[in-house]
Structure formats: structure tokens, C-alpha cells
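User: Please predict the structure of the protein below. I'd like the answer in C-alpha cell form so I can feed it into my own downstream comparison script.

Assistant: Understood. Taking the following sequence of 264 residues as input:
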Amino acid sequence: EKGLFYALDLGGTNFRVLRVQLGGKEGRVVKQECDEISIPAHLMTGTSQELFDFIAAALAKFVASEGEDFHLLEGRQRELGFTFSFPVKQSSIASGTLIKWTKGFSIDETVGADVVAELSSALDRQGLDMKVTALVNDTIGTLAGGRYDDNDVVAAVILGTGTNAAYVERANAIPKWHGLLPKSGDMVINMEWGNFRSSHLPLTEFDQALDAESLNPGEQIYEKLISGMYLGEIVRRVLLKMTEEASLFGDDIPPKLKIPFILR
């Protein structure tokens, strides 16, 4: 691969934008730049247009800062790879409908909508001449990135705002697979293991209370046990109980300790 390419990684309370100049087999990655932007809390539960307009505006600003070291091939439109780390039903390489939000997002109108179409419309409103050429889950993107440098890479794990994993499986071992097998004989499986639930998972009273008060009770249980979105809140709940029952901080309870998700 040669040329200038952009990437957008949306999967938690922050999103990242990246540009990379690829030099082919010899040059590989010539240069890359990245920026990270925090998503205001109100946009995580607002409207679809507000969220994607905010993202598109940040991306447009990032594109405007493109330096002379980056070269778009003549006659080529800027291309964007879109990493979207939420459950989707993918219908093609560059389209997929949102099944449900996770990780603190709750925007009902986006559920069932094509997230690439939502982003593309926002890019158009910004006047940004850019085409979304691929939609991938963050685990798939991580696995592909690792495989780019080392063909022996067979799995990827995400431990961030949320958690997930992907691995390479033999296509003939996939019960859900129908149709012709890929030439390689392999398929990458997105596990969505954040939604894993088992009687063997040790749920404490703090885990159960957090889940009951969450935006999606009964879902993403494993994610709520180990991911960055929730670990601070579990610690806060433990500290609050210790303060109430054992005067951990003296006779007075620190007011901020009563604020949900104050520890991040």
C-alpha cells in the first residue's frame, strides 16, 4: 500500500484521529500523526447528529493541519478507515447498522442506523471531501495492524474503556458460516466478549448495584467487571461503604465520594 490514509477510532469516552503515509513494502509506515479528543458527556446521550457533527468537526480540523510531509496521490480522494467499537451488523466492507450502544453511550435513534452513513453525512456538512472505505471493530483493527508487522499474530485483546477480543479461526470450523470459504481458509472472529456472562463470574454486591443502575442492566457484564469505564466506579462504591461503615476518612464522608463516576 502506498499513499496517504486517515483513520477514525470511536470506541469510548475519547476518540482518536490518525493520518499515515504508507510507502509500500519497502517503506511501510513513512510517517504518522495522531490526535485524541474527549467526548463531552452530554453528547453520549444526546442526538446522533450532535455526536457525529462533533466528531466530523474534529476530523476536519485535523485534516486542515496536514503538513507538507504527507502527500495525497494525484487524482485520489482522501480515504478514511472507521474503527467503531460497538456491536454492529455489518452488511459490507463499508456499511453496518448499530445493534446497541455500550460503554455509557445511549442514543436510541442511532440503533438500527448505518453508522457509516451517519458519519458520511456529518463529513458532508463539514464540507470535508473524504470517503469512508472500511468499517471495522477495534479488535479487528488491532489484529490487522499487528498482522501488518508480523504474520504470526493470531489474536488481539482490547482493555480500555471497554473490553473485547478477536482471533483467527479456521473458516470450516465456524458453524454460522455459509457459502464459499475464503481462499486463505481462515476467518477473523469478533468475539464481543464484553457481553460474556456466566455463573462462574464472581459478581460482588458492588458489581450488581453498578449493573442495576447502568444504562444497560443485564448486558455487558464482563465488561463492567474489568474495563476502564467501570473500575473507578467500583472503587468509589467500595470506598463509600467503607467510609459509611468504618469511618475510613473520619466522621465526615467526602462529598465527592457520593458522585457517581467521579473516579476515572
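That's the full C-alpha cell string. The first strand starts at residue 2 and ends at 10.
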